[in-house]
Amino acid sequence: MEPTQIDAAYLTADVPGVGGRIKVAPGDFQVEEVPLYEPCGEGTHVYFQVEKTGLSTMRAVRDVARALDVRHRDIGYAGLKDADAVTRQVFSVEHVDPERVRVLDVPRIQIGWVRRHGNKLKLGHLWGNRFVIRVRDADLTRIKDVRIMLDRLTLRGVPNVFGPQRFGRRGDTWEIGRAMIRQDWKEAIDVMLGRPTDQDVDAVREARARYEANDYAGAAEVWPRAFRDEQRACRALAQTRGSHKRAFFSVDAPLKRLYISAYQSYLFNAVVGERLGELDRLIDGDLAWLHDKGAVFSVEDASVEQPRCDRFEISPSGPMFGYRMTEPAGAPAEIEMRVLAEAGLTPADFRIQGGHKVKGARRPLRFQPTEVAVDAGEDEQGGYLELRFALRAGCYATALLREVCKTPEMDSPAAGIEH
């Protein structure tokens, strides 16, 4: 499989990694949301902090909704958090007595503060996240090297690559997105339903094997209940005598958008790799990202704008490709168009049959961690390095950890650090 990171390149390549593993012991990975705004204390909506252990955000939403006897869609949340972690995030619910929320008794969930507000909490209403991550089995004698790497990453920026979890447990969601862009429906279905690997176990592996044997009805029966789209696609194949296009069009729209987003992310990572050594340098023709406003402007004279880049007010941006994406000029445009051409695509290809018109967007090539600190410690599980830092929403902790550790694990979907 092709790499989904940046070809094992590192911005801190001259400093060897310290190795190590994450999520060895409960509590080794902790994340706390930093809200975009504080609840005002009045209104029909109730905001409340949830501390969850070993639960995904969506599982926690369902459990809380059940306990409050409301629909899961009535629970608002600002971001998705990892299941294999201790996470503190904010939920909201309307027309519920705050006292009912305060005394909720839900397994693996604790309720923190509870306050009223005037609107529902929605996805994206988030400044960022604070992380506390313990890295086990690392070389604790090299904490000075870790500080050197962290100082450089804080000054120059961390490569803003999408983490491996963006590409699914098997690391192949981008392949399905690529097939969609190429309108190769058989390839999309083959990756989605077939090609079993060692990562597939039990019923999932059996379902994929049955698909490979063209036993579509049998595969539909074997897929576990959680794989509803896979079941639906297999039934469509059985009903249409193998129409891969009809099968793929039976998949829910949000999942198809996720596949396309994964491929956009894959191509963005490739552009980051092309510009890795100059993530903190503007080039004439760049579209510079304004960090405070989340907008871009065209750089006509890089020497004039570079001091703002040095202060981390602005950064070079890269492509989330689409047919209406604003394009840079000069050398930055040449790099981006070369990446797209090597994929055999043009911007016009992102107008896909079935209503999936991908307009595209821009994304900064780097991000700046704040509140950065590292210490060595020891507990009943042994020694560890404890890293603490805050990241803006949309940035992956994996990207920083991979620079420090430089191990294959940090490029694996099993790393699973959400943002």
Relevant terms:
alpha+beta; 8-stranded mixed sheet; 23% strand; globular
What does it look like?
This protein has 419 residues and is α+β, with helices and mostly antiparallel strands. It is built from 13 helices and 16 strands. The chain has helices at 57-68, 98-102, 143-156, 173-181, 185-193, 202-212, 216-222, 228-239, 244-249, 253-274, 302-310, 330-342, 397-405, and strands at residues 29-35, 45-53, 76-77, 86-94, 109-117, 126-136, 158-159, 287-290, 295-298, 314-320, 351-352, 356-357, 361-364, 366-367, 370-379, 382-392. The strands form 4 sheets. Strands 1, 2, 3, 4, 5, 6, 15 and 16 form an 8-stranded mixed β-sheet that branches. It has a 4-stranded antiparallel β-sheet with strand order 9-8-10-13. A hairpin with a 2-residue loop joins strand 15 and strand 16 (382-392). The longest helix is centred in the middle third of the chain and has 22 residues, at 253-274.
Short description:
The protein has 419 residues and is α+β, with helices and mostly antiparallel strands. It has helices spanning 57-68, 98-102, 143-156, 173-181, 185-193, 202-212, 216-222, 228-239, 244-249, 253-274, 302-310, 330-342, 397-405; strands at residues 29-35, 45-53, 76-77, 86-94, 109-117, 126-136, 158-159, 287-290, 295-298, 314-320, 351-352, 356-357, 361-364, 366-367, 370-379, 382-392.
Q: What portion of residues is helical? A: 25-40%
- Give the C-alpha Rg: 23 Å
Low-pLDDT ranges: 3-7
Approximate shape: globular
Measured distance between first and last alpha carbons: 25 Å
Overall pLDDT: 92
**H/E series, N to C?**
EEHEEHEEHEHHHHHHHEEHEHEEEEEEH
User: Helical region count?
Assistant: 13
Largest sheet: 8 strands, mixed
User: How many beta strands in the DSSP annotation?
Assistant: 16
